[in-house]
Amino acid sequence: MVVKGFTIGLLFISLSGCASFIANQMTSPKKSNIDGNISEWAVVQQLCDSNNYCVKAIGLGELAAGDHSLEFSFHINDNNKIWRYETKNSGVETAKPLADHLILLFAGYNQPTEVLYIHQLWLQRMTGAEVIVIPSAENTETFKFGLDYAPPIVAEIQRLNPEKVHLIGFSMGALAASEVERKIDNAKLYLVAPMIDFDYSAKAIYDILYRDKIYATFISEDTLEDAIQIVYEESGTTLKDTDLIAKLNRVKSPTFIYVSDKDRVVEYSSFGSIPNENVYVNFYGELNHLEMVALLSQDLMTDFVSDLLERPVLQSEVSTLGILCDFDDDNCLNQLPD
């Protein structure tokens, strides 16, 4: 039997009880499992604060204004998926309801930035706002749950001086989005499948990805606990710093939350009673974490765009997302535009 080197290495460190190695794996950037042409018009830029602390961000270049047929494939565990999206410039001037606004998309933990590029494009097309993608928290030199993103992002907001700032946080990206919200006074906050407990979410992700692997037997609950504690210690953060529910209890900006009862990564029940009239929670069924953070639901998309535009929208208005199919599902793929 052939066993990959990674599996052997993980088995070895697990047997050794090496929680520090697991902590390092938790906070290190991962290679994207997405292939496609979706980043042709993305422009990487640096956002910096007055102390010259910078974070990477992705804006839209001039190529984004044209017609696009975008396609990418990616892997979810052992499944291959394909996603295609088309947009055409009709030449007719359309309404730009958020023309003087700024939209920031905060990627979730280990969420490939490319997944947000399509959302970035249709959001700009639909709203007229400037749209910037912020990569996930593990893409910085020192992992801090994305909380360190706030100063350079706030500096950029002050430079651009938009009428309104829409902060959209996916999974762990909710922490960075909510931290920015605390420091500005013209924000709206949108949290999709937000991570409220790193301990809970880290264990859930491990369970989903690795529980059925041969080496999982040798990784104890105590080792995972130790690894999570190391993450907090090395990041210089505390449980209070990442307590999103406590932050939501105090949030002053309009805040919209989107959660699913089938999302094993998020503690769904914690959103049942947040005593803050600024917080609105939308509940969905049968959507897993990946489907939530990729906005792979017409109901979810419709609610999100309605909240963004501050008016009810029809599902036909948000049919821009394309179709997600199994790689070999011909019936599904035949529905995609040519």
Structural features, described:
This protein is an alpha/beta fold and 338 residues long. The protein has two domains: 1-30 and 198-238, no CATH class; 32-196 and 242-333, Rossmann fold. It contains eleven helices and twelve strands. The strands form three sheets. The protein has a six-stranded parallel beta sheet with strand order 7-6-8-9-10-11, with helices on both faces. It is globular and about 60 Å long. The protein starts with a helix and ends in a 5-residue tail after the last helix. The model is unreliable at 1-16 (pLDDT under 50). It comes from Alteromonas sediminis. Residues 1-19 form the signal peptide.
Task: Briefly say what this structure is.
The protein is 33% helix and 22% strand.
Provide the fold topology.
Layout (H helix, E strand, L loop, with lengths): L4 H11 L3 H9 L6 E3 L5 E7 L5 E7 L7 E9 L2 E9 L14 E5 L7 H14 L2 E5 L15 H11 L4 E6 L2 H10 L4 E6 L5 H13 L10 H15 L8 H7 L4 E6 L18 E6 L4 H5 L4 H12 L13 E4 L3 H4 L5
Parallel strand pairs: 6-7, 6-8, 8-9, 9-10, 10-11
Antiparallel strand pairs: 1-4, 2-3, 4-5, 5-12
Helix pairs in contact: 2-7, 4-5
